[in-house]
Amino acid sequence: MQIRLRSTSYLLPENSSWNYLKKNNKLDFAEYNNIFSETYIKKSVECEVFIFFLRDLFDYYLNDKKNIDIKKIKILISTLKKTISSNKEKYYIVSLSSYFYSNIINETKNLSKEVDLENFFYKELYKLSNYLPNIYILNIDKAFAYQGYKECFDERNFSLFKCRLSVLGIEVLSKKINTIVESFHQTSKKVLLLDCDNTIWGGVIGEDGIEKIKLGQDGLGTSFKNFQKAIKKIKNNGVLIGLVSKNNKNDVVEVLKNHKSMVLKEKDISSLKINWKPKSENIKEISKELFLSLDSFVFWDDNPIERNKIKSEIEEVEVIEPDSDVSNWSKQLLEYKGFSKFKITTEDKKKTKQYKLRSLFIEDKTSSKSEIEYLKKIKLLPKLDIIKKDNIDRAEQLLLKTNQFNFSVKRYKSSQLKNMNINYNCNLIKLTDIYGDHGHVGLIIYKVLKKKYVLVDTFLMSCRIMGRYLENWILHQLQIFAKKKKVSKILFECNLNKKNIELINQFIKLNNLKKHSSLQLTKLFKETKIKINKNSLYMFDTKTKIKKLEIYKNNKLN
Hints:
Layout: E1 2-7, H1 19-22, E2 26-29, E3 47-53, H2 54-57, H3 66-85, E4 91-97, H4 113-131, E5 135-138, H5 140-147, H6 149-152, H7 155-161, H8 167-183, E6 191-194, H9 205-208, H10 220-236, E7 240-246, H11 249-258, E8 271-275, H12 279-290, E9 297-300, H13 304-313, E10 318-319, H14 329-335, H15 346-349, H16 351-367, H17 371-377, E11 381-386, H18 392-401, H19 414-423, E12 425-433, E13 436-449, E14 453-461, H20 470-484, E15 489-493, H21 501-510, E16 514-515, H22 522-528, E17 537-541
Parallel strand pairs: 1-2, 1-3, 3-4, 4-5, 6-7, 6-9, 7-8, 9-10, 14-15
Antiparallel strand pairs: 11-12, 12-13, 13-14, 15-17, 16-17
């Protein structure tokens, strides 16, 4: 990624501490202390990083009038808003450091001016980030605090070069910016798989019994309870929790239900694999049951032998190396960036419940004599929703996270979606049935090309809803749209990879989509300025009868 850094302080661009960020990115440093200037800007970049040091903006020594500085912050925020609003396709990272020398005695009775300004500045920044989805805030002082302010700031560097930071400070800044930049294009992990004995409680349940395991008491028991609290927190943010343990299932269930210090309950667990089979075998079964790829799994086990087995037998699963001190596990889990998300949606908070509903659906469907008759009975009710302000975060999340049923695998940000809404039809798909409200589980982006074709730019669906042939209902909606526009051909942009090839090929075969050469459409795409991979097009004739649609026969079609 091409990144430009703008700072109120000189950042020593040639210093080797920037190598952490330079490893996978190209850096460009704007003129320091002239943070909004475009005078020396020669090329466009994908990401702009703004770094503000309050000591550069305000004269702490001489100016004691807080209102004057508040006005300065408002002007700065306004300018920042104008700058970012002018280009919503870029990523913007805004970092603030308010570190200044403090007098602990003076602050025992009075809130310092520096803290007051910092609070106001952050309040305004977060208001701005709610208005502009492409802005990300980095509290660099928290990162500096871990290393020690005295080690990260350097008055000598400032006197010589006008650089507020020491070499260590630049290294910390470089690493933190790199962490955010890497997250722009990384899909977060979805499932945390945990052992039980000596992992979520101390001791061995089969030997010690429920009364003697270490959980909730002072010392080690408190550490295991705090670890469970951390697990519960990430679960509430949309991470699925699974237990994979060599144990008697009844013993584990008894602890979940009856131990007074258990934070995790049976309702918090999406999958229980408590048996004596190899853990790698259990993990593969969970992957099939949840319809999630193995690279979305994270494995946590106190036993190094079990960890090494998973590393060697299932390379896709990320294996955590727990700290030797259990008291650090909660911190280690909460700081693990694999579960980090920029935004938490309503669907995230319902994730465990939704996957439990999926398990119940699969169980009922498998036991039924006729798949079609069963699906007719569960009162499937799909709906197309227009993308708007209150659901655009979910649309963005589906685009960034959906891999297995995703035709084009395009990754749009919410700012890009807003622009696409002008020239394309953009619809989220919602589904309810007797199992509950599944929320928005699919997305299509499509448009008519020169009154000859309907081009489907994006067609994706959450895998937790697979098995209901909702994808065929969505195809039917595109068919209805095309016929209204008097168009007989629907084109799908399809970029196959190892994650989506199985499900997409199943859909293509079931619905008789044909490979279509874009060479025949070169002129059309050139006229419409649409870039298409010449080997990525599939065509559907609107006269084709769509299979399995009878399960939606008695339900409203949009």
